[in-house]
Amino acid sequence: MVEVARFAEFLQSLAAGLDPDAGWYGVFSRHDPDGLRACLQGRQLPPWDVVESLLADAGAAAGPAATRARSLHGAAVAAWDAQFGSEPELSAALAAMERDLHRTDQDLREVHIALSHADTPHDHARLTQDRAWLHDDRTRLMARAGEVRERIAALRQASATASPSTDPGPQARRGGGGKTARLRGARFAGVEETAMQAPVLPTLETAPGSEPAGGAAEARGTGRA
Q1: pTM reported for the whole predicted model
Q2: CA angle, 154 as apex, 150 and 158 as ends, to 5°?
């Protein structure tokens, strides 16, 4: 798709000027290098918050670059959903995000309680960092859920405006044509999952310029990756 290719070119140009070991680019590179590479190659679409973080790394969180990035990202998502969009798949992704958001809220409450009982400066600093990462998780999850809701609404609008009187043809009536039938084909396997995959910030990861946080992260194992 032309729109996806244009966005990928922009993302590649943006990333080319960044240090892959520093800032948010470093966080995403360490946590999900394959997913980040797929986004740069146009095989996956990152959620907007990831693009925004890379713009911040480049000192371009506002201004023409950010405006162009938003336009290109929106066009790429619209083109992707126009070809591969599936409301059930997006709804499933939204439900997963809402579950993660609930779990993050629980974790934040636990960290808040732990902070009130921290005995040493080291424990207090560690838990404070844990809380900061959890707040970032929550912010990103809410933004991504909102983004998916907008995509679902766009799909519904497109479906509602389609002419109900148009005869889809005998092949479509038999189930051999139309978007739903095509998405059952083997070459579309996992395409909606791919559409939702992106470098996802771990529950707790090495913050730019810091050491890995412990405590709550260790208690939860590998986190949400």
Answers
A1: 0.69
A2: 170
